[in-house]
Backbone:
């Protein structure tokens, strides 16, 4: 029997070499599926579908957090490597080198057990692959997708097709504006729904995130991190806390979605306080709950009538 | 007897010629004190201290809203004129022409009644003038200041002196970062408090605003305006709703401050839906309350324990 909280993530597991004004790392654990798994694993059981090369040294880190790696294929060759740097306010990654290596030939083929996972996160891989995964799934409870400018520029129709087929699409502000062809964010969100998205979560980095569907509009600020170290993985960590919370309680109603946005925000704030998913690996329920409470305290008030 | 809700604003009353992608106006009513007055006048009585030239045609608009103009000096000469335009996402005004005219010689001299106003807004005039006004006030309940990059670049010490002397300083994100010498907003806010500010409200435009003091941290998103027309006056309109709400209820506690942030946000959202303060003049308590409720609904949730 599949666990009713089980979350499947399909994405990348990589080795990242990153420089920021606060330090640098070489061939540290990275990749969307990694950040996502460590984040979500604090809420619910996670299975990873990804590929690494035979040089990949970090399996233990996942296993120690209870992450199911039976879907992590090891292919002959080298693991996906990314080298990048951030300057100034760390708003944008500047890619210095991408070596796809074994990831270039990645075609997710899901085992029977993984096809029955109730929660699914499609990290920012080729939208064709995201659609392949969706067509293999057996009635998932909730599907969440991510994407990136690269695919929006090259395969906008496929990206839209993914948006129509998942329950919630995660995009950052720039991606949402580019995909919608709008310079104003509220209009971009409306346009994505008009074009068939069921719900969107738009991440605005240090400005928080918004959830927008036909029924619900919800906004959460970012957690005011002062120990910002490396923004890599913030979006995937957000996704992990977001879907993790929903999976943990088996709820997708408005109240749960709102708290899930806060959980995503809290996990993203932890992720960016260290290089690699170190902080995500080392955190604990108490710290996560404290951060979510603190976020709630920053937005909560009881409205009283004014006129 | 001075009204216990009376708000005094010292700032500019101007004639603005503005072009945005959504239209243009020529010599329309503008100026920080104008936007502020129309905004605050929906909450509490307002007195304006400012100067206009003998060509100023808009006194009636203020009087119709019940704004006290006994402190609006009419000097021989022309009214302050500003000409600017906005492009793209309307993020920044591009100034085409500034004619200070009678405003060049403005030195606010307060009547006895105005000195006793319990609430004071110092709009973005020269910090030396702001300090002159403060030294004339008789035990105000709450003082709020605004500033601009022009003064931060030229008189940072005087700007800091204003920050130390007012209860709450209003700045936009760029101004806060420039004044603090920090590129990261949460750090900038901390630094301003370290340097002596009692509390700051940092406006982030379409990303909302944050309130930060030693006791309270509060964040409010922007109201998602889709009918954006002209962002001129958004900050002053925010200030009007913010202090207006506090003056109306005679409260400066955390709960009131939070709702005041929502009121400021609602008034700013109305201001930018038209050129000039047209929408602020034409709005009503029902519309304001609806917008504040809607904002509250976008952030509100009841937290439940997770672990």
Residues:
């Amino acid at each position: 029997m599949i666990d009713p909280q089980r979350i499947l993530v399909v994405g990348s597991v990589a080795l990242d070499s990153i420089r920021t004004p606060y330090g640098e790392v070489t061939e540290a654990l990275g990749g969307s599926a990694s950040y996502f798994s460590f984040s979500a694993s604090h809420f619910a059981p996670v299975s990873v579908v990804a590929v690494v090369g035979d040089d990949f040294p970090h399996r233990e880190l996942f296993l120690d957090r209870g992450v199911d790696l039976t879907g992590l294929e090891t292919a002959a060759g080298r693991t996906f490597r990314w080298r990048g740097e951030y300057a100034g306010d760390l708003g944008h990654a500047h890619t210095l080198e991408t070596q796809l290596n074994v990831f270039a030939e990645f075609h997710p083929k899901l085992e029977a057990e993984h096809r029955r996972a109730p929660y699914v996160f499609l990290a920012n891989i080729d939208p064709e692959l995201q659609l392949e995964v969706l067509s293999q799934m057996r009635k998932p409870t909730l599907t969440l997708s991510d994407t990136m400018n690269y695919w929006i520029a090259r395969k906008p129709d496929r990206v839209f097709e993914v948006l129509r087929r998942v329950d919630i699409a995660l995009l950052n502000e720039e991606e949402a504006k580019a995909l919608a062809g709008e310079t104003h964010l509220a209009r971009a969100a409306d346009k994505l729904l008009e074009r068939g998205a069921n719900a969107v979560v738009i991440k605005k980095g240090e400005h928080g995130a918004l959830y927008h569907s036909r029924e619900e509009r919800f906004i959460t600020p970012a957690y005011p991190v002062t120990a910002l170290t490396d923004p890599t993985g913030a979006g995937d960590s957000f996704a992990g806390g977001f879907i993790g919370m929903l999976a943990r309680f088996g709820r997708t109603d408005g109240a749960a979605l709102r708290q899930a946005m806060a959980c995503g925000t809290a996990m993203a704030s932890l992720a960016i306080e260290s290089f690699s998913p170190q902080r995500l690996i080392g955190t604990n329920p108490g710290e996560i709950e404290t951060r979510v409470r603190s976020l709630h305290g920053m937005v909560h008030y009881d409205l009283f009538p004014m006129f």
In short: Chain A is about 40% helix and 25% strand. Chain A touches chain B through 49 residues (CB under 8 Å). The longest strand of chain A covers residues 23-30.
